[in-house]
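Hey, can you fold this one?
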Amino acid sequence: MKGNKTLRFLIMLLVLAGNRYSMTVVSAQDPQLSQFYSAPLYLGPSFAGSAGVPRLGMNFRSQWLQLPQSFLTTSFFADKYIEKYKLGAGLSIMYDDAGGLMNSLYLSTQYSYRISINQKWHLVPGIQAQFFSKRINGNALIFSDQIVNGNVLPGGSIETIDNEKYHHFDFAVSGLAFTDRIWLGITGNHLMKLNQNIPDQQEYAPFLFSAYGGILFDMLSRAHITKTEKNITLAFHYKTQEKIHQLDLGLYHTNAPFIIGIWYRGIPLISNTESKDALTLLAGYQTGSLSFAYSYDLTMSRLINTTGGSHEISVNYKFENLKSKRKKIRAIPCPQF
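Sure. Predicted structure:
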């Protein structure tokens, strides 16, 4: 009985990995976060220093809990804006465990530069350098000589496979334009894959293009004197990687210190997005310099009764006491989560 469960888990894991990653085992898609605005450096290096003050953040995501071993993603970041040079600098770490079969480590450093086009619009180009490491756990694989009558026999296989490891450096660039109420940005990641000398080397992740943006609607009159923030934000996020397309549409309502949000992922504008539909519900709270949020991804595809959805939490802290005494740094109006 235990062998049957193990076998079913491995088969299901490979099927789901085909949705979460590309069908090539090594050349996989990047891990996905629902609260990508709480991990802004992962969205694009242009967000480095975007808070105007030193900032720390953490995300933890557990995906497909009904499986014996779920996909776990943990990320940390720190960034700071250096006003004298109009420079943002950041550092991020992400560890992704794909059900024990693969684990990946991303170590990245980001830099951005703020340019004032006029009194209304600002432009922020960014660049990222990244060290990437991936390990495939050969001990988690099951071969045909271990299966008898649908059961996995104890002991090993006559087949031997080493725990393969890959590591290399990679780069990303981004551009972000914003006003007090609007932001628009694009990111091109895994630029090494565009090198003509390595396009067929599968250890390099496929090129990833993403576009994102939104608009903020203030619900309070400017004549109304209050410290309470109250607004509605509409946002989108589109990305494509290895012939996979994904479009997210979201809405946030902020009534400080609370924020709630909803995202619909995988609008079926393109046929291969239909199996990736999900509804993300989010709730967050901010107290002083500390903010945290929880979100739940409800699977809306045929896998709804199999995966158990996904849970994600995020925590951010801003060092407001270190805010510059000079003119106030204009913040990007995107959501906190």
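The chain has one domain: 2-322. Let me know if you want another pass with a different chain boundary.
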